[in-house]
């Protein structure tokens, strides 16, 4: 009996006793595990260390602990079903342990090589609006909400600047490469009645889900996870590296608190302000 035929038989029994949602989740979890095993590994011969390595790998990839626990539950129920039919003599999933609490994943900025990969992937896979959105986050450190709220009038092509609205509007300088992309996008938008800069394929304002979809497309293309927070941190690292004025960096990124800016400061702590010293001593 093949791995797939055993899985099909098990899913048929699940369908008789569980809800459609449970069936769908179980099917997704077990098929992902079979894909991990590959055709050469028999599901009846799986060892506990194989399952442990699979689940640890999912956590390392950034999957939430609750999701991985659900996948372990799916595996335990499946192997219990095999055990009840005397197809195995003990369940390899029964004694698997997962952490009680998930350690926070620290966001890291992209290296120069990774930035080049991301930009190249955006050029290959995204429409012009997607390329502009990604470059705005990578170069200027804009938040997703700021990117989606940009209007065509926010760009000043005479001064090569962009105005970010908010409680304290910010005027940011643009690189030549970004100006060229924005100019091309403006030419595409000339006949549009919509004033929003970043639009979807239907010429409507892009949703937050649409922006995250573009990031997932890029992640799949470059083989590492790309997030909006990571892009913003990359921009922050570049700007603060040679900065000497905390207030200017705070204004660049729209930080409400000076402490937020100082947390990413690259200079010797002896040069920081007294309130920063007090903050970390309390």
From TrEMBL:
GO MF terms, alphabetically ordered: DNA binding
Keyword Isomerase: no
Record-annotated Core-binding (CB) domain positions: 1-83
Domain of life where this protein originates: Bacteria
Stored InterPro entries: CB, DNA_brk_join_enz, Integrase-like_cat_sf, Integrase_catalytic, Integrase_recombinase_N, Integrase_SAM-like_N, Tyrosine_recombinase_XerCD
Domain Tyr recombinase, residue spans: 105-277
Family matches, as Gene3D superfamilies: 1.10.150.130, Intergrase catalytic core (1.10.443.10)
Keyword vocabulary terms for this entry: DNA integration, DNA recombination, DNA-binding
GO biological process assignments: DNA integration; DNA recombination
Pfam families to which the protein is assigned, alphabetical: Phage_int_SAM_1, Phage_integrase
PANTHER family documented for this protein: INTEGRASE_RECOMBINASE PROTEIN MJ0367-RELATED, PHAGE INTEGRASE-RELATED
Similarity section: Belongs to the 'phage' integrase family.
Record-given protein name: Integrase
């Amino acid at each position: 009996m093949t791995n797939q035929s055993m899985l099909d038989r098990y899913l048929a029994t699940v369908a008789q006793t569980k809800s459609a949602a449970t069936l769908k989740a179980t099917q997704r979890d077990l098929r992902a595990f079979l894909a991990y095993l590959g055709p050469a590994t028999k599901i009846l011969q799986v060892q506990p260390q194989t399952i442990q390595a699979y689940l640890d790998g999912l956590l390392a990839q950034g999957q939430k602990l609750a999701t991985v626990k659900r996948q372990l539950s799916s595996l335990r129920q499946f192997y219990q079903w095999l055990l009840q039919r005397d197809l195995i003599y003990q369940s390899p999933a029964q004694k698997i342990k997962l952490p009680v609490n998930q350690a926070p994943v620290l966001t890291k900025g992209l290296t120069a090589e990774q930035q080049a990969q991301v930009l190249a992937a955006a050029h290959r896979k995204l429409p012009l609006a997607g390329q502009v959105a990604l470059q705005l986050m990578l170069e200027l450190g804009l938040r997703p909400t700021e990117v989606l709220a940009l209007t065509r009038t926010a760009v000043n092509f005479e001064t090569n600047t962009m105005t970010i609205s908010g409680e304290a509007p910010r005027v940011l300088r643009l690189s030549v490469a970004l100006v060229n992309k924005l100019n091309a996008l403006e030419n595409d938008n000339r006949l549009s009645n919509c004033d929003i800069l970043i639009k979807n394929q239907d010429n409507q304002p892009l949703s937050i889900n649409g922006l995250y979809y573009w990031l997932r497309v890029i992640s799949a293309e470059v083989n590492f996870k790309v997030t909006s927070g990571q892009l913003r941190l990359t921009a922050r690292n570049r700007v603060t590296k040679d900065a000497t004025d905390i207030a200017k960096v705070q204004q660049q990124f729209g930080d409400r608190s000076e402490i937020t800016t100082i947390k990413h400061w690259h200079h010797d702590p002896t040069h920081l302000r007294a309130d920063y010293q007090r903050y970390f001593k309390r």
